[in-house]
Specification:
Shape: globular
Number of strands: 4
CATH topology: Alpha-Beta Plaits
Strand order of the largest sheet: 2-3-1-4
Radius of gyration: 18 Å
Structural class: alpha+beta
Order of helices and strands: EHEEHEH
Strand content: 35-45%
Number of domains: 1
Distance between the termini: 63 Å
CATH superfamily: Ribosomal protein S6/Translation elongation factor EF1B
Number of helices: 3
Length: 130
């Protein structure tokens, strides 16, 4: 028997979760068009009650197979939080955008700020060479 959510137990669909969006933009876009596309993606997330943690453009890479007759694409990663019930809205918006030739949204593993900071410090010490 399934119980209805109560005020003490918030609806899991409404609680913000961490997600990662990996996208591929058309390779024929100029720098201004790429910036505009990234700004639009960030705006769509924030309009849907989300919060963007980071945006990482990965640059142009060769595709494993042609997509819409393109052999290359401009890859990028966006880490964000978003209520679960708003993810489908975001997918719909991304799917009808001509600049985006492919995308994937996955639920991210939660990262602990302390572990991330320690990892950066270790890699900085290893590369420091003092």
């Amino acid at each position: 028997m399934e119980q209805a959510p109560t005020a003490a137990a918030p609806d899991r669909r409404r609680a913000p979760r961490e997600y990662e969006l990996v996208f591929v933009l058309r390779p024929d876009l100029g720098d201004a068009e790429v910036r505009a596309a990234l700004d639009r993606i960030v705006a769509w997330i924030t309009e849907r009650e989300g919060e963007v943690q980071s945006v990482e453009p990965w640059g142009k890479r060769r595709l494993a197979y042609p997509i819409r007759k393109f052999r290359e694409g401009l890859y990028g990663l966006v880490r964000f939080t978003l209520p679960g019930h708003r993810v489908q809205d975001l997918k719909n918006a991304l799917g009808i955008t001509e600049e985006i030739i492919r995308f994937l949204i996955v639920s991210a593993l939660p990262t602990r700020p302390r572990q991330a900071q320690e990892a950066r410090e270790v890699s900085a010490e290893a590369g420091g060479g003092e």
